[in-house]
Design brief:
191 residues
């Protein structure tokens, strides 16, 4: 869910005239400014066409957005986090980072070493409630046909099944999991 959100933000940022750069934690291994600069250059090379690379590299920080996936899984000691964040703050107007839910605890315990993360606004992906879940089921069921009496019955049956599975705690009510359930229900009906 979090990676899909970042990829959507990447597309939206491009459309809004920004230059987003997507960074997976696996590539964030060093805290030296030289290595971080090299990493950014490589990411620009990987994510942009040759004709646009110079434009992105020379863009002002106000035009660039960093989408940092799984910040909590970086490959350097915690004590270097401040220097990494300071470097990235100079290069980008916004940094949007995802972490595992347990990362909050690590920040509290190691406040001195990770103090630079306090400036980040923390947000969480929320689970769908009954209405949003029903709306998603209805949209899914109505993709293949125009709404009619039979499709409304199909929506009600499918929503009832999904609600039972979610209600028993077998699957969380995040949109991605609901979509996976819906795909499974559809495949079960077809085959």
């Amino acid at each position: 869910g979090k990676t899909a959100l970042l990829k959507k933000l990447y597309t939206d940022s491009l459309e809004a005239g920004y230059f987003p750069i997507y960074l997976q934690r696996a590539k964030l291994k060093s805290s030296s400014a030289k290595e971080l600069r090299r990493l950014l250059d490589n990411l620009i090379e990987d994510q942009y066409e040759t004709s646009a690379q110079a434009l992105v590299s020379q863009a002002k920080p106000a035009q660039r957005i960093l989408l940092l996936d799984n910040l909590d899984r970086y490959g350097f000691p915690d004590r270097y986090m401040t220097s990494v964040i300071e470097f990235l703050n100079k290069e980008f107007s916004k940094i949007i980072a995802t972490t595992d839910g347990a990362f909050d605890l690590k920040e509290v315990v190691l406040t001195d070493e990770l103090s630079s993360l306090r400036s980040f606004e923390q947000m969480r992906l929320l689970e769908f409630g009954f209405k949003l879940r029903y709306d998603l089921v209805a949209k899914w069921c109505n993709l293949s046909a125009a709404p009619d009496r039979e499709s409304k019955r199909d929506v009600m049956q499918t929503d009832k099944l999904v609600s039972r599975i979610v209600g028993r705690g077998l699957v969380p009510s995040y949109p991605l999991y609901i979509l996976i359930l819906l795909q499974g229900v559809e495949m079960g009906r077809e085959g």
